[in-house]
Amino acid sequence: MNNLTINGSHTEEDVYTTSPAYIQITRGIFDRLPKFKLPFPLHASYDDTLKPVFGSRASDRLTREQYEVLSRMCSQGMLFLSRRDIEAYKDLLVENLDLAVGDPCLSGLERADILSRGITAKAGAFLDQPSPATLEAVHAGVLALTGCLHADRAAINPFFQLDGDQGLPWHGFKTMIFGLAAFQKIYEGRQGRRHLDDLALGLLLHDAGMTRIPGFVVKKPTSLQILEFEKVKRHPAMGVEILRAAGIQSVDTLNCVAQHHERLDGSGYPQRCKSGEITVLGRIAAVADSLAAMTTDRPHAKARGLAECLHELARDRRRYDNTGAKALLVFVLTELS
Ligand SMILES: [Fe+2]
Ligand SMILES: [Fe+2]
């Protein structure tokens, strides 16, 4: 592109590197567009201006010839999308997370939103129907996210601005973000990518076993009876069973699931493990899971602020790993404010 000026007020550099008014349709994106019916209007650059091209209206259907013309324009770097249509573009990327990771036109918050929607949808599909195929989709989504973090640790920050529902996929996602932030802060890049990947997958799916607990117990607004709680206590082991059956072999991933309710003083469940018996990732999972629960509206408790909950967890040295809780607290107070 030569000196393309958009709206007459931006230089090419500031338009395309900071907050672009138009986003270039790369070959990778074009090839994933539904053929013959575009999900958003496209614009082509002619000389120094951008003009709508055919297929711009929702009712338009493209002919094969028109599709091929657009394909050629794309190869020549002439095809763009207006930022006004960013939501439809984001919907496309939610289905193609690998493209979202490499798109320089997205802000960190937009990329975080796309990754969270894509990963929670895949996690939801796995929790509904655990299988090697649904697990593979979750794994690909997780790798897209950890790839971003591996390249730039600060890429985790915008995830803290996102909000979700009270369902299991979002709870898993929130736990994953908290745990990854703690892990990054503790190790400051001294741990390899594999640990990040294994931890992320374990945290995202840590409550998979809850899908086997009767709904009336999970949603009960009052305290659980002893027998009901005994049922709930089985969910970490059931989660391990579900993940193993789907093909997960990583001990680190399975430990996140098995140990997220263990507490350092032996008061947790299901094994009543004590400090030395709980792995580092199991300890991080415990802090991250409790924090995700405390900062979410639950049947018996209102959501509380992130820093307030972290102060509480960091003070509770008897039950929670202080290194993880403090690392996350320092991260929230210094890097998010
Ligand atoms: Fe749990
Ligand atoms: Fe949980």
UniProtKB/TrEMBL annotation:
Pfam families per the UniProt record, alphabetical: HD_5
Ranges that cross the membrane: none
CDD domains for this protein: HDc
Keyword Hydrolase among record annotations: yes
Every HD-GYP domain range: 142-337
Keyword Ligase: no
UniProt keywords, alphabetically: Hydrolase
Alphabetical list of SUPFAM superfamilies matching this protein: HD-domain/PDEase-like
Source domain of life: Bacteria
Annotated PROSITE patterns: HD_GYP
GO molecular function: hydrolase activity
InterPro entries for the chain: HD/PDEase_dom, HD_GYP_dom
Name this protein carries in UniProt: Metal dependent phosphohydrolase
